[in-house]
Amino acid sequence: MSALFIRVILFMTMLMLPRIAVLPEVQAAPKVLYLTFDDGPSERYTPEILDILRRAHVKVTFFVLGFRAEQYPQMVRRMRAEGHEIGNHGFYHEYILGKPDNWVRHDVERASQVIQKASGVNPVLYRPPGGLIDKHEMSVIQQAGHPVVFWTIDSKDWMATSNEEIITNVMSKVKPGAIILFHDGVSNSRHTAQALPTILAKCREQGYVFKVLPIHRTSLKTALVSTVPGTKAQ
Ligand SMILES: [Zn+2]
Fold first, then answer.
1. What is the pLDDT of residues 147-159, one digit of tens each?
2. Which of 77, 163, 198, 213 is at a distance of 20 to 30 A from 172, taking alpha carbons?
3. CB count in 10 Å sphere of residue 202
4. Strand residues in 120-184 grouped as ranges (E)
């Protein structure tokens, strides 16, 4: 074997090395899902949902309502104590679309204060009730220090008549990086609680892991999804 031939082989090996090094990393890129629960805490469903999440070792993000945090501060404390992220969903779930700036600021701030009192932590993320918000209102809230987060998959649990519907809605659309909207504080949340163990198991079978939404704005670039005017959830 000539020295030149060996050098060529070595050179080619070096060329290939970076690909060998990068490939396993790409293949191992985590399939992350961000589960989010709005409109709670509710006395009826939040403890059940928290129990399911604890048993499954899954952390999620709760977008809490101010007036409910005031009613059930111990549940907000429990969310935090069990490692979940807590976001702000306004005080009374009043739609902010078309409201004056001062009203918008006051609603977010009032909810923040109650959530902070209950959990000891100031919520960073904000999700508008119903997903209804315009660009200007969004900038008002972001300037107050709250990145606005929507969702990419609506489980439609707020209108579901069975847990199977919720499972189908989620599993037919699930994909890496998805932010999934559920509710722990509406009358249909019992279906959510019933559907949740199956959804967690099916997603895990497909290799997904669950994370809380990152609260830093830079990490949220992919999480910020434009709302469709007229989009309406609970
Ligand atoms: Zn809501």
1. 999 999 999 999 9
2. 213
3. 14
4. 153-154, 179-183
38 is catalytic: yes
Residue reference for tokens 């977010």: 108
User: How far apart, in whole angstroms, are the C-alpha atoms of residue 123 and residue 132?
Assistant: 20
CATH class name, domain 29-220: alpha beta
Report how far apart, in Å, the C-alpha atoms of 39 and of each of 93, 99, 119, 188, 213 are: 8, 20, 16, 12, 17
Contact 118, 69 (CB under 8 A): yes
- pTM of the model as a whole: 0.83
CB 65 within 8 A of CB 92: yes
CB atoms within 10 A of CB 11: 10
The H or E element that residue 64 is part of is strand 61-64
The active-site residue, picked from 84, 89, 183, 191, is 183
Strand 208-210 to strand 61-64: parallel, antiparallel, or no bridges (unpaired)? unpaired
CA of 153 relative to ligand 1 center, distance in Å: 14
Query: Cα(127) to centroid of ligand 1, in Å?
Result: 8
Supply 97's token pair. 């679309």
Residue-range domain boundaries for the chain: 29-220
d(CA 163, CA 223): 26
pLDDT digits (tens, 9 = 90+) for 84-121: 999 999 999 999 999 999 999 999 999 999 999 999 99
Q: For this structure, is 183 an active site residue?
A: yes
